[in-house]
Specification:
By secondary structure, this protein is mostly helical. Helices cover about 70% and strands about 5% of the residues. The chain contains eight helices and two strands, in the order H-H-H-H-H-H-H-H-E-E. Strands 1-2 form a two-stranded antiparallel ribbon. Helix 2 packs antiparallel against helix 7 and helix 6 runs antiparallel to helix 7. Pfam families: DUF6534. InterPro entries: DUF6534. Keywords: Membrane, Transmembrane, Transmembrane helix.
Length: about 325
């Protein structure tokens, strides 16, 4: 291969990115199995979505390793193929776009439910997510057309940048919308405050990871476009999105347990004892009569009332 090519920052980066993507793909598979084990009563639509996410992630991993096979085995020793863009590498970008738009649609639906069907919050998310899909599809098409990273950078460098920027924007929009909606639903001392706090934490964690990965990939693409570090980071972006959706679904049981523990702590039975001391004021001529009182002594009548707090059970929706 040519001596002016930095193997570590090009093909080495792709290899490390493929290994990390495979590791995360295994996590996606585990999360998928956990979901079908824990939530067999979910609707067919959400089960289909989970299967589609897993299938796309598996195909994405296969395309990644297909590109590595071409670089390290098929093109071995061919200097003219160093800058070549394999079909599998280009298709992986389109698969990432499809997977991303499905995850964004899922979170847009959550915003729709939490906002009590306010389309003004959902429409911007959907529009940006669709534009992100269009950008990734166009990126794949142009890569297949030019078949060269140099040619791609020279002609449509803005296209890849636009796709990453749109992905970051929709992540920020979804995270901020869910945060404010969850925050506004809290009530002082409410029984669901602990669950809402946990949801806010999960929202920040999942949203920040995907957004950070996208931003770092965009920075590498803008600052060091001759190296393939940006593509290695792009390999794992789709895995982060798939994981964020599955983690959101699988943490419902944990949140339910948090709510149950909070409810049971306030459901302890308490007893109120009312003592009614009635002094026996009996005249001398009533002494010795069988009237149910002890002469000159007070009799305590104890009344015990058991009070039990009612518990509200809620059904999880996504």
């Amino acid at each position: 291969m040519s001596s002016n090519v930095e193997i570590a920052s090009t093909f080495g980066s792709l290899l490390i990115g493929a290994l990390l993507a495979s590791f995360l793909s295994g996590g996606v598979t585990i999360q998928t199995l956990v979901y079908y084990k824990l939530y067999p009563t979910d609707g067919s639509s959400i089960k289909t979505l989970v299967f589609a996410i897993w299938l796309l992630d598996t195909c994405h991993t296969g395309l990644i390793w297909g590109s590595q096979w071409e670089y390290f085995i098929g093109f071995y020793g061919m200097d003219e193929k160093i800058d070549y863009i394999p079909t599998t590498l280009a298709l992986s970008i389109a698969i990432t776009g499809i997977l991303t738009v499905l995850v964004h649609a899922f979170f847009a639906h959550r915003i729709f439910l939490l906002s009590k069907r306010k389309w003004s919050l959902v429409v911007p998310v959907v529009i940006i997510a669709v534009l992100r899909l269009v950008s990734s599809t166009a990126t794949t098409a142009t890569m297949l057309h030019y078949r060269s990273f140099v040619q791609f950078r020279q002609h449509v460098r803005w296209l890849f940048t636009l796709g990453l920027a749109l992905s970051s924007a929709v992540d920020v929009l979804i995270t901020s919308s869910l945060f404010f909606l969850l925050r506004s639903s809290k009530r002082e001392g409410g029984s669901l405050d602990g669950v809402i706090d946990a949801l806010i934490l999960y929202t920040f964690e999942t949203g920040s990871v995907t957004c950070a990965a996208t931003i770092v990939s965009m920075i590498c693409w803008i600052t060091i476009p001759t190296q393939l570090i940006f593509m290695a980071l792009h390999f794992i972006i789709g895995k982060f999105y798939a994981t964020s959706l599955l983690v959101t679904l699988n943490t419902r049981r944990v949140l339910r347990d948090v709510h149950s523990r909070g409810s049971s702590s306030g459901r302890e039975r308490g007893a109120f004892v009312l003592d009614n001391h009635r002094m026996n004021r009996i005249s001398k001529d009533e002494v010795g009569s069988n009237n149910g009182y002890d002469g000159g002594k007070g009799v305590a009548t104890e009344l015990q009332i058991n009070v039990e707090r009612s518990v509200q059970y809620t059904r999880d929706s996504y």
